[in-house]
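Hey, can you fold this one?
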Amino acid sequence: MTVPVRHPRRQRSGRRFDLRATALFFGFAAVGLCVAGWIVRTALDVAERRPAWAFVLVLVAVAAVVLGRRGRSRLSVLGLARRTTGALEEGAATALDALEATRTVAPAAPAPLVPQPTAATVDLHAVLDPDEFEQAIAGLCLRDGCAEAEVVGGAGDLGADVIAVAPDGRRLVIQCKRYAEDNKVGSEDLQRFGGTCFTVHEADVAVVVTTSGFTRPAAEYAEQCGIVCVDADRLREWNGGRGPAPWALVPGPAGETGPVDEALG
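Sure. Predicted structure:
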């Protein structure tokens, strides 16, 4: 009787699948990723809070790249540690020098001198109260060559707020109206001033200066009586040195200046 011969099964070449080894591999990989993420996050926080340490981290990365290129042959753990330690010491020294430099307080520069406001630099329409406005007008008269300028406004001033002597010797009588922009000087104001400026104060040149404007009846009355009207626009030009002084709009003794109606606009 013939017995069939069973051939032994050939074993498959290669490594057998090891579940434990695979699990350990993925576990170490996960731990490595977590550690790498923590290192990156810590590096970003340090770079944000202390920019000087960002320089240290850059040095470490550069050192790692240089060591990787030079060490194509397998480096020992001890040699790598020595090189990395040297790079860290050098970077730390550089960072400390940078921190010391930032802590060094430079001598404070002297504060720039701020010029005090004058009648030619302040905005007369916004920053002055009525009394300061009269003082500013007197200052403009002195600035432009008046020999004298005195603030006489107050109770019983009979319409005169500033009295001055023009450069050509004429007597100036100025009434100041510190009004809001929408509150124009009316004809009644001009009539009260016109009744005293020439007869009582003996003005050679009578001027009304306002921070607003004049109504048409007031401008017509001023033209008839020979009163110079200086509104907000002309005041800005006079204050900024871009326009003539009020007395320059009235013909002087030699008749060399312009007519009064130029001031009425």
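The chain has a mean pLDDT of 75. Let me know if you want another pass with a different chain boundary.
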